[in-house]
Amino acid sequence: DRQSMALNVEAYIAAIEPDTRIVYITNPHSPSGTWLDESEVRRIVEASAHALVVLDEAYVHYSDTPGYIHLAAEYENLAVLRTFSKAFGLAGLRIGFGVARRPIIDTLLAVKPTWNMGQLQIVGGVAALDDDEHVERTIQTIVKNREYVQGRFQELDRFRMVGGSRSNFFLVELLDPDIDSTGVFLGLLERGVVVKDGSVSFRGLDDRFLRCDVNLQPHMDRLIDALADLS
């Protein structure tokens, strides 16, 4: 669905072959930020009983839901992944965690490097899990400014913010047939604004899309003003 960029679950399931070994789901989806309901995730997992299903919830904190970690207890072929790089703000530590049934965990432990985490990573990760106030403040800032910039996009007639993002980024569709994503990317770069060119950064997107991060209000204003200046 080009209008909402929502995942076509029927097509996704149809693409799963008998010899498929791993089925990978990002939820919220990257780069669209769209969200799969629990029933849709269950359908994919149950259609992939012969394969390992990896549910990547890197951006789940921005979705206003607790996510689907609880499903890992129900399905023996499901692993749910989380990261400390996004809402926790610890990208430099390169840490995360996964939740799955014991057979999957045992297989991973058998090939895990012996010393794959240092003391700083362990202490930082534990501290982050205890700091609910910081995470909640980060989430609320993103959600507020995501709504703000969506309102500001109403001022533009050559660009459309694709609605429905449940993440800290969103897609922008180029409505003017005389421009393309690379040209707009370069034009924004000249104005000190960095976004991602959909035709270069993301497999499956064409030259009608950019991906932009949600940031503080002054940065969102700068994005809108730069896009307007291109017009």
Automatic annotation (TrEMBL):
SUPFAM superfamilies noted in UniProt: PLP-dependent transferases
Pathways per UniProt: Amino-acid biosynthesis; L-histidine biosynthesis; L-histidine from 5-phospho-alpha-D-ribose 1-diphosphate: step 7/9
Record keywords: Amino-acid biosynthesis, Aminotransferase, Histidine biosynthesis, Pyridoxal phosphate, Transferase
Record keyword Transcription regulation present: no
Catalytic reaction annotation: L-histidinol phosphate + 2-oxoglutarate = 3-(imidazol-4-yl)-2-oxopropyl phosphate + L-glutamate
GO molecular function, one term: pyridoxal phosphate binding
Keyword Repressor tagged: no
Cofactor(s) demanded: pyridoxal 5'-phosphate
Gene3D superfamilies for the chain: Aspartate Aminotransferase, domain 1 (3.90.1150.10), Type I PLP-dependent aspartate aminotransferase-like (Major domain) (3.40.640.10)
Any one of the GO BP annotations: L-histidine biosynthetic process
Family named by the database record: Belongs to the class-II pyridoxal-phosphate-dependent aminotransferase family. Histidinol-phosphate aminotransferase subfamily.
Protein name: histidinol-phosphate transaminase
Originating species: marine metagenome
Lineage, top ranks: unclassified sequences, metagenomes, ecological metagenomes
